[in-house]
């Protein structure tokens, strides 16, 4: 049974979400403030985190950053009334994986939880199969059907990052910071060049697509 940590300071919403997810087969621990949630996270194993943004003690952005300092893999989903692009951008930059705007459809919430947990499991296997395409981190290889796709090390790493985080948007700056050295003279637009090369090399793959998120960066989606 997957264990979910829920941080929501609205008592009624906290209770209704916890009850709904429990009835769907999850083990849910609900918290009304971040400090107690962080203490519990340090002591117990969780599979996914759901958090509001506007909390009384520490806001959700800071909470996500605290979690990412301790665990860079656990999926984090924001469930908030903030629907502006700047809040979404801050959330993804803080390391979250998904963002839902209140009022939340609880059935959709379950769908998103399942997708995040599935992706988290894929990331741990280090091997991804999407339709006719396979990418293997241990072998550093990528194949379409029986044909190996020639990728440079950096192209491989960028592609693997996108495919282990389906639908998650990465900014150009995030990708640059991770895959280029700190003293590199390359700028964020270097990412655009690599994305063009990747799209060209993956043109035969119809099971997924790398798309541009205007004003932010890039993400991979399943087609």
Structure description:
- With 223 residues, the chain is of the alpha/beta class.
- It has helices spanning 11-23, 34-43, 60-70, 85-94, 106-125, 153-163, 172-179, 189-201; strands spanning 3-7, 27-31, 48-51, 76-80, 98-101, 127-130, 133-136, 141-144, 147-148, 170-171, 208-213, 217-222.
- The strands form 3 sheets. A 5-stranded parallel beta sheet has the order 2-1-3-4-5, sandwiched between helices.
- A hairpin with a 2-residue loop joins strand 6 and strand 7.
- Helix 2 (34-43) runs parallel beside helix 3 (60-70).
- The chain is globular.
- The model has no long low-confidence stretch (mean pLDDT 90).
Task: Tell me briefly what this model is.
The protein is an alpha/beta fold and 223 residues long.
Structural class: alpha/beta
Query: Main β-sheet: number of strands, strand sense, barrel status?
Result: 5 strands, parallel
Largest sheet: spatial strand order: 2-1-3-4-5
What gyration radius follows from the Cα positions, in whole Å? 18 Å
Distance between the termini: 29 Å
- Estimated share of beta-strand residues: 15-25%
**Number of helices, where a helix is a run of at least 4 consecutive DSSP H or I residues:** 8
Helix content: 40-55%
What is the average of the pLDDT values?
A: 90
The helix/strand order is EHEHEHEHEHEEEEHEHHEE
Q: What would the principal axes of the Cα set say about the shape?
A: globular
Query: How many DSSP-defined strands?
Result: 12
- Low-confidence segments, given as residue ranges, are none
What descriptors fit this protein?
223 residues, alpha/beta, five-stranded parallel sheet, four-stranded antiparallel sheet, 12 strands, 43% helix, globular
